[in-house]
Write a structure and sequence with these properties.
Blueprint (H helix, E strand, L loop, with lengths): L8 H26 L3 H13 L4 H8 L3 H13 L3 E6 L2 E9 L3 H22 L4 H28 L2
Antiparallel strand pairs: 1-2
Helix pairs in contact: 1-2, 2-4, 3-4
Length: 157
């Protein structure tokens, strides 16, 4: 049985950079469909996942500073995607709620349904064990990205 070739660290970094660039460019393109930046679009995605949350929760999940989150919510509110409302559990707090938007839903579907179908085809090439490793990598890499986003944001202030 032959051993697999060792992974070239420089090639791995290059592939990671290529992947990250493709991911950011894809999300920028989806954002442009909605008239938003990638960060604004991802904030909408976050609100779809979590439901109404405080600005602080958005900051915790994105790694953005309080000021950056406030400006982000202001832009999304002005564009008609979100609104600030009293927290139903604690009326002293305000939460950010995603507004219904059929146009946004249709544009998101036009971008993500084909993307999801293509990813399903890619994942069909892997065994269950390989898929678990891939998902573990995605999970761990996401944690590293969030932590480093927070680190960089805090360096700026």
């Amino acid at each position: 049985m032959t051993q697999p070739e060792p992974i070239d660290p420089a090639a791995a970094v290059g592939l990671g950079r290529e992947f990250a660039t493709a991911l950011v460019v894809f999300h920028e393109a989806v954002g442009r469909l909605l008239g938003l930046s990638a960060v604004e679009r991802k904030c909408i995605d976050l609100l779809k996942q979590l439901g109404p949350v405080t600005a602080g929760a958005i900051g915790e999940r994105t790694g953005l500073t309080t000021g950056a989150v406030t400006r982000l919510i202001d832009r999304l509110g002005k564009a008609g995607y979100v609104e600030r409302v009293p927290d139903p559990d604690d009326r002293r707090k305000v939460v950010v709620r995603l507004l219904p938007n059929e146009r946004m839903d249709a544009l998101m579907a036009s971008a993500f349904i084909p993307f999801g179908e293509d990813l399903a085809k890619v994942m069909a090439n892997y065994t269950e064990a390989e898929t678990r490793v891939i998902l573990d990598w995605v999970h761990r890499t996401t944690e590293v990205l969030v932590a480093n986003t927070r680190r960089i944001e805090h360096q700026q202030h």
